[in-house]
Structures are given as C-alpha cells and as structure tokens.
C-alpha cells in the first residue's frame, strides 16, 4: 500500500486478461490446430492400429473425411489395393494379410473361421498367393445379411494381392455336424472375388448351383486350376 492507501503496482493482482492461458486450454487449441489440418491428421492416423483407425471414422466429420478420402488410409484399412503391391516375377516376401480379420470378435461378426495365405511359385517362375478361406455354417452366413447388412467389413480385402490373376483362393464352409467337418466349394482367382462380401456371395452362389464337393476331390480341382493358370501365361 502507498501512504494514501491506494494500492501500488506491486500489490495489484493481474487482471484476467493478463493471466496466461491454462495448460489444458493451450493443449486443446494445439490439438484442434493439428486435427484440423488434413495432412497432419493423416500422418498421425497412419501410425495407429487398424481397429483404432476404423473407429476413428466416428470421432468427427474431419476424421471421417480424412480417412475416407486418403488413399493411404484406405489401403491401410484394406478397403483399397495398395499401389505398390503387385509384384511381377519377384518373390514378394511375406503376404500382407488383413490382420483385423484375425481378431476373434471380428471373425464372429463376419462368419470367417479360417484364413491361411502362403506364397506359391508357378512353373513359369511367377509368384502368386494361395489362400484357404473357411466360413461358418450356411445358416450363420445367411444370417449375416440381416445382422449386419451395412458392415464396413464387407468391403475389406482379405489380403493385398501379389498378382490379380495369379493369386487364387479355395473356399469352404462348416458342416452342421461340427467345426471338424467342412464342405469345399471350389477355387477362384483373387480378381473374381476380392472382398469378404464378394467371397460370401460367391460361396452362396456355388452352393445354390450345387458346386460344393467333398474334400476328396479338392486336390484334383486345385491342380486343374493351376494348369489353367499356366496355360494362360504361355
């Protein structure tokens, strides 16, 4: 206090306008600036796991727009074929399988019960993928239409291809007798059915046409398919 009783500059508390912003407010503002910039948000999202990225579409309109419009993020979610995935005549190394489909809860939601992918070399020194894909019972597969007709998993690729025409799959479904019994519905090229939805529809169509077969005929059918691929390469 001064002698006149008036407060001096040393004793006057700072006004609210002079107070520095709180840490939480500053961080919130910085986060808004980052997430509001599509390029920066894309870089951040490229570093998160698939499940988090998939759920991130629900966070906000900005998140959804960034994820759906980014080719790189769509590739990471297996909604789009990677631009550098096709290998011509070279060993591609380990196949890039959709890791989200290995999660138990996702398998239950999609009816997928078995997925095995390996690199296979043909006689003409061209590499391709050999995929074994198994689904649940026919009752379970048909129920998916009513349970989750618009599920985003339907648009997902099972694997990033090595060759659109050389990669092939084998489809099967579980018998009502139990998971140890399954019925084979034949092979197909990766380009014939690339997504889970396309694979399910192909399976149901072949069953409806009576093209399912016992496993005793599988080996002969697979070799016939490989011979056809070799003939197309010549």
UniProtKB/TrEMBL annotation:
Biased composition (Polar residues): 16-25
Start and end residues of each stretch annotated as Disordered: 1-25
SUPFAM superfamilies: F-box domain
InterPro entries: F-box-like_dom_sf
Name of the molecule in the record: F-box domain-containing protein
Species lineage: Eukaryota, Fungi, Dikarya, Ascomycota, Pezizomycotina
């Amino acid at each position: 206090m001064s002698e006149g009783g008036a407060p001096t500059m040393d004793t006057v508390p700072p006004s609210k306008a002079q107070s520095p912003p709180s840490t939480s407010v500053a961080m919130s503002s910085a986060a808004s600036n980052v997430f509001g910039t599509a390029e920066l948000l894309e870089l951040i999202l490229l570093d998160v796991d698939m499940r988090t990225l998939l759920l991130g579409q629900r966070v906000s309109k900005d998140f959804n727009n960034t994820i759906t419009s980014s080719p790189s993020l769509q590739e990471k979610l297996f909604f789009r074929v990677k631009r550098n995935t096709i290998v011509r005549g070279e060993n591609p190394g380990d196949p890039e399988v959709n890791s989200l489909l290995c999660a138990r809860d996702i398998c239950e939601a999609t009816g997928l019960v078995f997925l095995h992918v390996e690199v296979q070399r043909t006689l003409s020194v061209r590499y391709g993928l050999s995929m074994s894909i198994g689904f649940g019972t026919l009752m379970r597969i048909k129920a998916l239409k009513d349970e989750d007709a618009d599920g985003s998993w339907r648009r997902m690729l099972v694997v990033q291809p090595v060759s659109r025409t050389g990669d092939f799959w084998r489809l099967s479904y579980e018998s009502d007798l139990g998971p140890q019994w399954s019925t084979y519905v034949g092979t197909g090229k990766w380009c014939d059915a690339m997504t889970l939805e396309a694979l399910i529809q192909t399976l149901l169509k072949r069953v409806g046409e009576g093209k399912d077969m016992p496993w005793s005929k599988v080996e002969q059918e697979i070799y016939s398919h490989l011979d056809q691929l070799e003939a197309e390469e010549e």
